[in-house]
Design goal:
Blueprint lengths: L2 H8 L8 E4 L2 E4 H9 L10 H13 L7 H21 L6 H32 L28 H10 L23 H13 L5 E2 L14 H25 L2 E5 L6 E5 L1 H8 L1
Antiparallel strand pairs: 1-2, 3-5, 4-5
């Protein structure tokens, strides 16, 4: 067994990475990668074969206490060293060198994302698991639970107490009876007769608003006047639709929300003329 593999078997180096014993370097794999990135060590003097052999021995002798994600980090560190070592074999300022730099930057971003994902996975793994460390809450126990109200009310006593409130009050006034306010609405039958009568005097027809009933002569409040006008519009429109369905009148409207023109049909006009 190589000396480096024996050291890797004995224990891990700084940051949990295996210790290596190479020509020109002796220490943790993580420290070698940091020196290589800072260009503080000559990678051309490092034997890649010895590095890979010692890494394989460290992975083989890693105990169960070493997480699989940590072993994956060792492989990623070795891949970084191989990438940096391969860049030294390429000429400087060549398209291949530039492509290698772009690929290295992309790989660096992917490795950063992988490290974040591993950190998130470790955080989730350390949280209590449902069904293992914690368990779902079951049905509540019925022991000691009261479903009855705290206050008991005697219905008979409550009625007597209610009647006692009226003993000292005078008798209620039952002479005046409340009657709701009656509103004289416009009937549809009256609107039909009014439409036919007005159209007989207007051969060319008339707008629907001219066929409304005349407002009352008595003064009214604004709400009552608005209610009467809505009733007049509703009855007149319904009467016009019924007459149009029967073929007595013709309704025309040029567009949405435009004035509705009402005119007598041909048969109705002839009968009126006769």
């Amino acid at each position: 067994m190589e000396p480096g593999s024996r050291q890797a078997e004995d224990g891990e180096g700084e940051g949990g990475s295996p210790r290596l014993a190479l020509d020109g370097f002796s220490g943790p794999l993580e420290h070698l990668l940091a020196l290589a990135r800072a260009q503080q060590i000559d990678l051309t003097q490092i034997s890649l074969a010895m590095l890979l052999d010692q890494l394989a021995a460290a992975l083989q002798h890693a105990g169960r206490g070493t997480p699989l994600g940590q072993q994956g980090d060792w492989v990623v560190m070795a891949a970084w060293l191989l990438l940096l070592r391969s860049q030294l074999l390429l000429p400087a300022d060549t398209p291949a060198q530039l492509a290698a730099s772009v690929e290295a930057d992309r790989l660096r971003m992917r490795l950063g994302a992988l490290r974040d994902a591993q950190a998130l996975a470790d955080w989730l793994g350390r949280r209590p698991q449902l069904g293992q460390e914690v368990f779902a809450r079951g049905q509540p126990e019925l022991l000691g639970t009261a479903f009855e109200s705290a206050h008991q009310v005697d219905v008979i006593e409550f009625l007597w107490a209610s009647l006692a409130l009226f003993d000292d009050d005078p008798a209620p006034d039952t002479a005046s009876v409340y009657r709701p306010l009656l509103t004289d609405r416009h009937a549809v039958a009256a609107a039909r007769e009014r439409i036919l009568l007005l159209l007989a005097a207007a051969p060319d027809g008339a707008p629907l608003d001219r066929l409304l009933p005349a407002p009352p002569e008595t003064a009214e409040t604004a709400p009552r006047r608005a209610l009467r006008r809505r009733a007049a519009w509703a009855s007149t429109l319904i009467a016009g639709l019924e007459l149009a369905k029967q073929g007595d009148v013709v309704l025309q409207q040029e567009g949405d929300f435009q004035t509705i023109q009402v005119s007598a049909s041909g048969s109705q006009a002839r009968s009126s003329a006769a």
